[in-house]
Design brief:
The complex is a heterotetramer of chains A (520), B (401), C (269) and D (383). The longest helix of chain A has 31 residues. In chain A, the strands form 2 sheets. In chain A, strands 1-4 form a two-stranded antiparallel sheet. A two-stranded antiparallel ribbon of chain A has the order 2-3. In chain A, helix 9 packs across helix 15. Chain A folds into 3 domains: 158 residues, no CATH class; 50 residues; 276 residues, ABC transporter involved in vitamin B12 uptake, BtuC, CATH 1.10.3470. Chain A is built from 21 helices and 4 strands. About 2% of the residues of chain B have low confidence. Chain B is 42% helix and 20% strand. Chain B folds into 2 domains: 209 residues, Response regulator (Rossmann fold, 3-Layer(aba) Sandwich), CATH 3.40.50.2300; 129 residues, Rossmann fold, CATH 3.40.50. The N and C termini of chain C lie far apart (45 Å). With 383 residues, chain D is mostly helical. In chain D, a hairpin with a 2-residue loop joins strand 2 and strand 3. In chain D, helix 7 packs across helix 8 and helix 7 runs antiparallel to helix 10. Classes of the chains: A mainly alpha (520), B alpha/beta (401), C alpha/beta (269), D mainly alpha (383). Chains in contact: A-B, A-C, A-D, B-D, C-D. The interface between B and D is large, with 40 and 49 residues.
């Protein structure tokens, strides 16, 4: 018991630090604003009414109270409550100390914002709930303790038989439904279900873009482009196991081919969308080969840093004075003409969503076919053990180059569409961070499988859009989530599974030495 | 089977996201709205009129976005109200990239309360955003997107109070050659579209005037050690160094010129290197450095009060985050003026005819802001007067004669 | 040389100062089981690596079916019909058993990535065949019920057999087995011995094997070579090798011969 | 012999041998082409470089000795800092085989520590004297600043490992990398939110004012040897050597090397693996902190993004010298610094392209020595 008390206090301290961090970045203001908006206030301003700050504090307290009882089952109710009490009290006291310090700053009118930029006097007032310093501090501590104990109580309640049973029922109900579907989709209606599912998917894909307005069209378009990129990188990293960090360079090549061939400036060639797209794909594939040739001996992180360098080289060259006359330099290229589809201009957001979906389907199709083939298996063997793969008769260099080229081609495709959709592309679109995004998405989603890639793309590109409510805290939250996801699901959201091969139905051809061996 | 699972996930996400992003529409309205090309934005009692801003709030250039949006926030406070309808700024992070710019633009388009956009900040984001606003008639007034090509595309909605590189560059070159009598000039830029555009024009014009450009170099932005490039420049012994870029690098250059054999060369910056920050960061090294700014009285009443308000609200000296604080204020304030011009109140509702607003912004005339006096031309350039040249004297920017 | 399938002629491999393999000659006749024995560090595996192309020997040549292998990459050599297993098991451990065997068939198949994308007739056919063949070989080594299990998770003995199946699935003429029974219990050892024998008998695959377990070696080898400190100190039929003084010394140290004789006499009496 | 399937592809008899040899010949040609291509590429680049050098140095003769000296100076200084950061990467990589992507951010926090501690000292007025603590006791102030900076960064490194990496030790190789990237994004934005995105200058004590230094006169022009630069360089070299000795001689160093070689065995030998790894992170953090403080003192400019670019560069340097190898990191860092400062001038190209240059050098080095300059040469893997 003593032990778990000590532990609970440690948890409290941790949360105290978290709380202090939140205050010092004015996270509480942001949450309060959100709460205010949810409670129907149209324009709460940057610093809403004190009650919302209290609400924030209570929420923190609840969280602490719940976290305090994490992995504690054996104890009695009273002890559990005690634990949540001690934890929240610890945090509360730390918060209290912080409040006192803030109060001192406030009272003596110390200007501290050069060091900690958010600590304006209004903010401090709000953090003290607009009360007198003493009152504010006390209320803070009380809030924490009350909410903490309440949280503990909730957890205990949640762990009682009845509630657990309730949850179990719900979950099992869902499981049943899924099993039903699975059963149906396996049984003799298998084909029907497949078609049904796919056509439903298609219906959704066709109808929704018209429905959900240009913003979400744009977001989904971007997600789609990143799915294509993800699949391409999956071929390189996921299948053939080469860590490539400069992947976005191929994307850039695709985009710039499209731009240079379809923009009035700087060359005014106006080839039209489709030839440019094709050429872009080919060029990226070629550049993949050229990059590959000299560095095929490198493995692991050496390859990573070299390819990172390659990406940066491409970006800097595109931007540099040397190529300005050719690539438009840092200004990038504007007014890229959109595609024509059988003579019809084809460049509203909706059209592009369709185009991108088509691209995604194509990419997924190719990816799947390759994955389940001799080529795919050769790649996997290289990923697993390059030396042995070689000794098993796989020409590793050839297949590594092939992986690079095909992966690059995917990127070229995405790049071409991207440039003509934004009607603009510039060197800084293709910075290192973009490559890293793509790599992250395939790993977050789950390496080497399509659903994983799609989910990853949603997470990496959709999430920041959803997080827009968080304003400046957007990327902070994003980074934290990235770490959290890796910690909770190291194999990705959807880990890939190996394909199953059923034994051949017709009797296996017996092994005759004349055919089976090379002997004369 | 995966297909089914994935289908489930997909539909859930779709539903979720569509739930977030649905757009409203306007109701019956006065005749201006009937006639207007883009219809009206309608505001009920208690709604706020929103002005959008797409700016980099994260990443390496966040200081610009945050600073400019803060300047604009104060403009919202000063804007007052139209018979009770107040203004608010909706600043969204576009990362300064085309992808972000288009995303933000689409978000604004989906929000009926957004009537105008102060921005975007970086040219790339702006270029990708213009066509999207064009479709629905949301006027833009960018404080800092200087890429000349932006106003050559015949866009109706895009305007800017930022200098064009041509205007600033040519005048700067002439001033250097004729007024200051510089003969040998070294031109540096930070490789950004702004800096490079400016530097190229200055170099060309300076040569045209008859001067000699001894060296033209580009530096890598975001770094803090330019001694190498400065040393090579020094070996060409120029009389002056022109720099197209921002304070971040400009200040470093000025400081390191002293240790690299350029202590006697004169530093000539642009409106990107103007601002209090330059003074604090260069100290006595900055003495005698030039900059070119939009014609305005740098220490007017309004500016002083603004600076006070800014310091009070954000705890920083105005201009300490970027040179564009005041431009940010002006772009928002200019839009407010235009909105007040066209807004109509009838029957407890406020109507803002979008088409009319687009024209109103384009015909903004003689608008006196903190960073200059602006009159928009037909192509959307609002800052056309000759730039004014300022020099650092005893730690302060003073008008150079 | 009509009957010999591989000839190792004066091969030497030197690491820095130390000569791991010193001027070794081997000649293996087709369809035989040829064992290489010798104390640890005698250079057996190094010799294997020289034959299968992992190392390029400093001196000497390896003739395989009359063709010189020198300087050829391991994959080229493999597709000539020479495959091997490894002392410390080297499976593609995250792939399933059947996938391992399908990779093994790589050099036999001709389907390329275009076929895969367009799903040509050749592709469909080869896929069907590689599955069928794969099952056949798994059946042969008795692993067909583990076909879809992750190979890394298989029991030790099974992994050894799977590795052999992978080696076989490229239809080799010559199979190099590096300590196939290492770390196996007597039962498994017996099975493995039977397996090796049946390889030769059923498919007429020539087998060179490195082995420490003398029962196995003496049981199945037609011919035995003994390496010690990189030199071939003896070669011959099992019976001859058992009597060979130098061999015994190599194993038991100087004076070992006498010791061994004493031991024999004890057993006799 | 009566099954339809395998006939077409299981080649038989002589012709099969032919097809196989044919295949093999093709592969052989391919690999030969590769074998030729790599040196060819290297030769071409080398020739170009030599040609440019000839052009610039002999024909045009643009820069005098003074310029070269200046370039060398700035190269050495920046290189020293790179080396110091690179060590952090190398230590962590050597022991965990992961790229600690957040290392640059750790350094950034060190720089902030320097900024704030110097400001703090400036605020403390010495009663009686007309001066403040910073200028009254500059040496103490600087030492304190370093202590604070190193402590901050070391703590950060420690918690980084504990929270973001330790749970992932058994995970697939790329997972910790992504976690590190997440951490890096988080730290950057945390710094921006805490300290505001403003770019700020460190106020040095007067004895270390920036832009002042000893002057050497080289063919007529005086070249300034800035105090801050010399200070930075010497200090980083000292730190590097100390660390090298620590790793080679001390008990901890032995433990570290043991863990790097084989965690299991090390654990069996009674080495506390977790503890050793934590300590490694503390050390690399402390070094990054020191680098950050130096960065602040020499370059002055501090903001939330200041760690990113040096981080990438330092990692490049580490790989260039052979990652996992401490002298390698030193060599790599200095080489990178010098290439960046002298390279563009020597080749007469725009300074914008200096990163291109350094990455090209990296690629060339790695194509000929796949494990870096001083990295141990991996021969064909033993089987």
């Amino acid at each position: 018991m003593k032990n778990s008390i000590r532990q609970s206090i440690r948890t409290g301290v941790t949360f105290g630090i978290v709380h202090i961090f939140f205050i010092l970045i004015a996270f509480n203001s942001m949450i309060s604003v959100l709460i205010a908006k949810l409670s129907g206030i149209k324009n709460p301003g940057e610093i809403p009414a004190p009650k919302f700050y209290i609400a924030f504090t209570l929420l923190m307290g609840l969280w602490i109270g719940i976290a305090a009882l994490n992995k504690k089952h054996s104890l009695s109710v009273g002890k559990k409550l005690l634990l949540s009490f001690t934890t929240s009290l610890t945090t509360g006291l730390m918060a209290g100390v912080l409040d006192v310090l803030l109060a001192i700053i406030l009272v003596n009118k110390v200007f501290i914002r050069d060091f900690l930029t958010v600590l304006s006097f209004d903010f401090i007032k709000a953090t003290l709930f607009g009360m007198t310093p003493v009152m504010g501090t006390i209320v803070t501590v009380l809030c924490f303790v009350a909410a903490g104990v309440a949280g503990g109580a909730l957890t205990i309640l949640n762990r009682t038989e009845a509630v657990q049973k309730f949850w179990k029922n719900i979950i099992s109900w869902f499981k049943k439904q899924i099993e039903k579907i699975q059963y149906l989709s396996r049984g003799k209606y298998h084909l029907f279900w497949q078609i049904g599912g796919i056509s439903l998917l298609a219906l959704v894909a066709i109808l929704l873009p018209m429905q959900w307005g240009s913003y979400w069209n744009y977001v989904f378009g971007t997600v789609g482009l990143y799915v294509i990129l993800g699949l391409g990188l999956n071929i390189i990293v996921g299948l053939s196991g080469q860590l490539v960090l400069g992947y976005i360079a191929f994307f850039a090549i695709g985009a710039y081919t499209m731009a240079l061939l379809n923009a009035p400036e700087p060359h005014n060639l106006m080839w039209g969308f489709w030839p440019a797209l094709l050429l872009g794909v080919l060029l990226s594939a070629l550049s993949g080969l050229l990059l590959g040739l000299p560095i095929m001996r490198l493995r692991g992180d050496y390859l990573a840093i070299v390819t990172l360098g390659f990406g940066e080289i491409i970006r800097i060259l595109l931007k540099s004075d040397v190529l300005t006359n050719f690539t438009g330099g840092p200004r990038g290229i504007q007014n890229i003409k959109g595609p024509m589809f059988f003579g019809i201009p084809f460049n509203s957001e909706v059209d592009f969503v369709y185009l991108i979906f088509a691209g995604v389907i194509l990419a997924g199709f190719v990816y799947n076919r390759l994955k389940q083939s001799r080529t795919g298996r050769a790649w996997l063997s290289i990923r697993e053990d390059e030396t042995v793969a070689r000794a098993t008769g796989v020409d590793t260099i050839k297949y590594k180059l092939l992986a690079l080229a095909i992966g690059a081609a995917f990127a070229g495709l995405a790049g071409g569409i991207y440039a003509s959709r934004n009607q603009f592309t510039g060197p800084d679109e293709h910075a290192l961070m973009a490559s890293i995004n793509v790599l992250s998405l395939i790993i977050v989603g789950g390496m080497g499988n399509i659903p994983g890639t799609i989910l990853g793309a949603f997470t990496l590109k959709g999430l920041p859009e959803i997080l827009r409510e968080f304003a400046n805290f957007r990327l902070l939250a994003f980074g934290a989530l990235l770490v959290f996801m890796m910690l909770s699901r190291p194999d990705g959201l959807i880990p890939s599974s190996r394909p199953k091969y059923d034994p051949p139905t017709e009797p296996a051809p017996e092994i005759d030495k004349k055919e089976a061996t090379h002997g004369k | 089977m995966k297909a089914m699972k994935f289908l489930a996930v997909f539909t859930v996400l779709v539903v979720l996201l569509t739930a977030c992003g649905n757009a409203g529409s306007s109701a019956a309205a006065p005749e201006v709205c009937e006639t207007d090309a883009f219809g009206c934005a309608v505001f009920e009692e208690g709604d706020v009129i929103k002005i959008g801003m797409g700016a980099p709030m994260t990443g390496g250039n966040a200081s610009y976005g945050i600073d400019i949006s803060q300047g604009a926030t104060i403009a919202m406070i000063d804007a007052g109200n139209i018979e009770g309808w107040t203004f608010a700024l909706d600043a969204q992070d576009d990362g300064g990239t085309a992808e972000g710019g288009a995303a933000v633009a689409n978000k604004f388009v989906a929000d009926p309360a957004i009537v105008a956009v102060a921005g975007h900040i970086f040219s790339g984001a702006t270029a990708a955003a213009i066509p999207i606003y064009e479709k629905v008639g949301i006027p833009m007034l960018s404080p800092s997107a200087t890429n000349p090509a932006l106003t050559t595309t015949g866009s109706k909605v895009f305007n800017r109070i930022a200098f064009t590189d041509l205007n600033q560059g040519n005048n700067a070159a002439d001033y250097l050659y004729n007024t200051l009598g510089i003969k040998k000039l070294a031109v540096l830029h930070d490789g950004s579209d702004y800096g490079k555009g400016l530097a190229d024009i200055v170099a060309a014009q300076f040569v045209a005037d008859g001067g000699e450009v001894v060296d033209e170099q580009a530096i890598t932005p975001g770094e803090t050690d330019y001694t190498a490039v400065l040393s090579t420049v020094a070996s060409k012994s120029p009389d002056a160094v022109y720099f197209g870029g921002y304070t971040a690098e400009g200040a470093v250059l000025v400081n390191q010129m002293k240790t690299t054999g350029l202590e006697n060369a004169l530093f000539f910056g642009c409106d990107g290197t103007y601002g209090e920050d330059f003074l604090t960061r260069t100290g006595e090294n900055g003495e005698g450095a030039y900059a070119s700014i939009a014609p305005a009285s740098p220490d007017s009443e309004a500016k002083a009060t603004f600076n006070a308000a800014y310091l009070e609200k954000f705890g920083k000296e105005a201009g300490s985050l970027s040179p564009y604080t005041w431009a940010g204020y002006d772009s928002a304030a200019g839009l407010v003026v235009a909105i007040k011009e066209v807004a109509v109140v009838s029957g407890k509702k406020l109507y803002i005819p979008r088409g009319a607003l687009v024209d109103a912004v384009r015909t903004l005339d003689n608008f006196v802001g903190l960073s200059g006096t602006f009159t928009c031309q037909d192509n959307g350039e609002c800052c056309v007067d000759k730039p004014q040249f300022v020099i650092v004297k005893d730690g302060a920017w003073t008008t150079a004669d | 040389m009509e009957n010999s399938i591989i000839q190792v002629q004066g091969v030497s491999k030197i690491f820095g100062g130390l000569t791991a393999v010193n001027n070794v000659d081997l000649e293996v006749s087709k369809g035989s089981i040829y064992s290489i024995i010798g104390p640890n560090g005698a250079g057996k595996t190094t010799l294997f690596n020289c034959i299968s192309g992992f190392y390029i020997p400093e001196h000497g040549t390896v003739l395989f079916q009359g063709e010189a292998l020198n300087g050829r990459s391991t994959d080229a050599i493999c597709s000539l019909g020479l495959s091997r297993t490894y002392q410390n098991i080297r499976l593609f451990s995250n792939l399933t058993a059947i996938e391992n065997v399908m990779v093994g068939q790589h050099p036999r198949l001709r389907e390329n990535w275009m076929d895969a994308v367009l799903n040509t007739k050749r592709c469909r056919q080869e896929e069907k065949i590689s599955v069928a063949e794969g099952y056949k070989w798994l059946e042969f080594v008795g692993l067909s019920e583990f076909a879809n299990a992750i190979s890394g998770s298989l029991p030790y003995g099974a992994q050894r057999r799977l590795e052999i199946a992978r080696a076989l699935s490229s239809n080799p003429v010559l199979l190099l087995l590096d300590e196939p029974t290492a770390g196996m219990n007597p039962q498994e050892t017996l099975e493995m011995t039977a397996l090796i024998r049946s390889l030769r008998d059923q498919f007429n695959i020539t087998i060179i094997l490195i082995e420490h377990d003398m029962h196995v070696v003496m049981g199945i080898s037609d011919q035995i070579a003994v390496l010690d400190f990189g030199n071939k100190i003896a070669e011959g039929k099992p019976a001859e090798i058992q009597k060979n003084e130098r061999v015994i010394e190599a194993y038991l140290g100087p004076g070992g011969a006498a010791l061994a004789n004493k031991y024999r006499r004890k057993k006799a009496s | 012999m009566n099954d339809p399937a395998p006939l077409p592809l299981v080649p038989k008899g002589d012709n099969n041998l032919n097809t196989d040899t044919a295949v093999m010949k093709k592969q052989k040609k391919g690999s030969k082409l590769l074998k030729l291509l790599r040196p060819a590429l290297g030769v071409v680049v080398l020739l170009y470089i030599l040609f440019r050098l000839y052009q610039v140095l002999i024909v045009q003769h643009e820069y005098g000795a003074d310029t070269w000296t200046r370039l060398l100076i700035s190269g050495l200084i920046i290189g020293g800092v790179y080396a110091l950061i690179a060590i952090g990467y190398t230590l962590v990589y050597g022991i965990l085989f992961m790229i600690n992507f957040a290392h640059g951010e750790v350094m950034m926090f060190g720089a902030y520590a320097a900024l704030y501690s110097f400001w703090g000292f400036k605020l403390i007025n010495i009663p009686g004297k007309e001066t403040n603590f910073l200028n009254a006791y500059p040496v103490i102030a600087i030492i304190l600043a370093f202590l604070i900076g190193m402590t901050v960064s070391a703590t950060l490194g420690y918690f980084l490992e504990k929270i973001a990496y330790r749970p992932l030790r058994k995970a697939p190789r790329l997972v910790p990398l992504i976690s590190a990237i997440g951490a890096s994004i988080f730290l950057q934005n945390a710094a921006q939110l805490l300290f505001s995105p403003q770019l700020r200058d460190v106020t040095n004590p007067d004895i270390l004012r920036r832009g002042v230094g000893w002057t050497i006169v080289i063919n007529g022009n005086d070249v300034i040897l800035p105090y801050t630069g010399v200070f930075t360089f010497i200090l980083s070299i000292i730190l590097l050597i100390t660390l090298f000795i620590l790793v080679q001689k001390s008990k901890l160093g032995r433990a570290m090397r043991a863990v790097a070689l084989d965690k299991k065995t090390a654990a069996l030998m009674g080495v506390d693996v977790d503890n050793t790894i934590s300590r490694t992170f503390i050390i690399s953090g402390a070094l990054a902190g020191a680098a950050g403080v130096m960065w602040g003192i020499h370059n002055g400019l501090v903001y939330y993004y200041v760690g990113f670019i040096p981080g990438i560069k330092a990692f490049t340097a580490a790989v260039l010298g052979g990652i996992g190898n401490i002298p390698g990191a030193m060599v790599g860092g200095l080489l990178l610094g010098i290439v960046e400062s002298m390279g563009p001038a020597a080749l007469g190209i725009n300074f914008q392209l200096k990163d291109v240059l350094s990455f090209v050098i990296l690629i060339i080095v790695l194509t000929f020595r796949p494990s870096g300059l001083l990295g141990e040469v991996l021969s064909e893997e033993k089987v």
